[in-house]
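Researcher: Dear colleague, please comment on this protein.
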Amino acid sequence: MLSALALAASIWFTPSADAGVTVSVSFPAVFDPWTPYYAPNYRDGYVWVAGYYGPRGVWHPGHWRPEYVRSGYDWVPGYWVGSVYYDGYWRPLSRSGYVWYAPTYVGGVWFDGYWYSHHHHTRHYEHRAVSHGYSHHAAAHRAEDRREAREDARERREDRHEAREDARERQEDARERHEDARERHEDARERAEDGRERSSSHQAADTTRKSEARSESGRKADVSVGSASTRKAEVASAAGSSRKADVKSTSGSTRKVAEASVSRKSASGEGRKASAVKSSSASREASAVKSSGSSREKASREKSGKPSRK
């Protein structure tokens, strides 16, 4: 009876939380943390987070998580080595230039989380797991290195794939820009064609309107010219008739005046002729008398011997 009680006490014994390590000694398949049936005792200030099955169907044991929350930090879960539990730790939510890779179990071996810089290809551990004195840790480290190498190769493949995708997208963008430019050129050409067609139609319409206007103005001009010619002919005929009448009356009166003037001129001519004849006869007579007087005086002086006066 006493041995049964001692065995029960050893099964449910849990060290203080200040030690940071919870050790559970249990029967297989019932109190083993590596089985889904494990149920730990109460731990002050912590909450038990149940385990889960991994992507390959392997059970990952649960862990303790603090009840409080620390601002700016995140809790990294603890891990199991056999039946020995190692508490987790707080890590910052971010680290400049680094990416956080969460810890995990691989083949029953715990791989601690770390910060990784893709630019410098370096890693930084917030908390390196202590050496547990088991020979499997060297293999675990080698497995971790292999996992990191696989991660690096996968990242390089992803980078190459992204580079190919970027190149393909740039080609697609260039092709789309070329298509857009070609469409804009086609649109501009169509707009130019439309503009030329509209201009041609406008010019044809203007030409038609101008020809119609010229025809209409020609008809109006012909009508006005005909009416003006008719009016001119009428005016000219009326004026000719009046001028003929005036000329007849004027010519009659003119002939009468001319006849009177001719008669007056003939009368005055005859008078002037008679006067001229009279005056010329008188002049000849006076000259004859004077010359005869001078001849007699000269003859007398010659006789008397006196010189003649000049």
Remarks:
- The two ends are 224 Å apart (CA to CA).
- The helical segments are 2-11, 136-304.
